[in-house]
Design a protein that fits this description.
Radius of gyration: 22 Å
Largest sheet: 6 strands, mixed
Structural class: alpha+beta
Strand order of the largest sheet: 4-3-5-2-1-12
Order of helices and strands: HHEEEEHHEHHHEEEHHHHHHEEHHEE
Bound molecules: adenosine-5'-diphosphate, 2-acetamido-2-deoxy-1-O-phosphono-alpha-D-galactopyranose
Oligomer: single chain
Number of helices: 15
Strand content: 15-25%
Shape: globular
Helix content: 40-55%
Number of strands: 12
Amino acid sequence: MNKSADMEPVEISKPDDVLSNRLDKLTKHFVSRFNYKPQFFTRVPGRVNLIGDHVDYCGYPVCPMAIEQDVLLAVGKSNSTGLHLTNVESDKYSDYDCDSLSDCGDVLKKTKDPRWYKYFICGVVGALEEITGDKSQGIDVAVWGNIPPASGLSSSSAVVSSAVLAMTHAFDCPMSKKDLALLSARAERHIGTQGGAMDQAIAFLANPGAAKLIEFNPLRTTDVRLPEDAVFVIANSMAEFNKAATAEFNTRVRECKSAAQMIAKEKLEKWDNVNTIGDLQKELGTSLSETLEMAKKILVDYPTLFKRIQHVLSEADRVLEFKSVCQSSKDGQLIRLGKLMNESHQSLRDLYECSHKSVDLLVETALECGALGARITGAGWGGCVVALTTKDKVESFVKDLKQKFIAINGAKADQVENAIFVTEPRAGAAIYETRM
Ligand code: ADP
Ligand code: NG1
């Protein structure tokens, strides 16, 4: 467990050449809008979840890794007041201005549609709860992200977490990475979705070269070294799904809570503090399989709720097995990991009913191209697949998958370049001071 590292503040880092070029472009955008140079930059990565979806908000561990794609901010403390946002992709994300920081939050209550700047404001509102002292300082921000949006790679959490990081740094409010992650997770719920804390935790706590086992209540993380020969490939089905604009995500959260409470009412004298399946299991003192047996009997007249809890309990088991297979050096390690990923996809598709026909087709195609395992990743109802292959096969695997993807999806060759790519565990959030 990296306890001490998780309690450290976010590092002030030095950008490499690739990042420096991107920061230069972002600086130009900032200057063109605000007429002065930014004081600092932040970088918050997206993530790919290798296994353990729709279990974090039920209190069970997950196993994601940070990816190369990220959200960058250029931040300046201005002489004016309020929040002023601009985005490099200005055709898609238009500028936003609010004259008083403390009034920004009102926009979250006024309209329900999840416009891009509202994610940023979620982070501002969250950070303002922690910042003490004078909050009249104006903040100017230029945003530039390259995480495919609404595709299960946590673009929204990268925006919210970036805002929390930028605000706490600008207002001299030092916090540990762990506290920033928890604050960002709470802040993102202002958008209306009742998610867990996986995305924000990996965004702040990731270490390069390792995936993470992330446990909740309390939040703790353990590096998971992936087998030397394993290569993970992300493939985007291009079916976008915005979880705050639709009811599906929160419906699943509610279904899990209802399942837990129905069993708790039947089995426990005191059930009203049971809010998650994890709480239920703790109170009962049962194993995953004993809890499942109990659920089967008690939820006999509620087949949908039973399917949801069956997914959660079996996925929780797969996450722990995935971690222990990574740690063992037995033969057939990769085959076992692939099998767990396949089982996870089937469970998310059939029991949790959060897949999409384009995603299922992509999983099948990845397996036909020789993947050892493939699964939907993130919230679902569209978005990305993560597939497991090996170093010696990755080149031909990616080539075959791209060709087949063009044939089935009608995508253009340049779209496919961005849609299918190899990924490896990257670092978590960082701050870069401006080079004068
Ligand atoms: P994800 O699974 O990627 O987190 P969500 O549906 O939760 O998907 O959130 C996607 C939303 O996040 C986008 O519709 C947009 O409002 C916001 N977003 C993502 N990337 C950016 C970006 N680069 N700039 C501005 N807003 C972004
Ligand atoms: P993405 O894939 O970023 O939409 C969402 C939740 C996670 C987790 C996954 C499913 C948020 C911010 N994120 O992630 O907490 O529940 O779905 O595993 O709500």
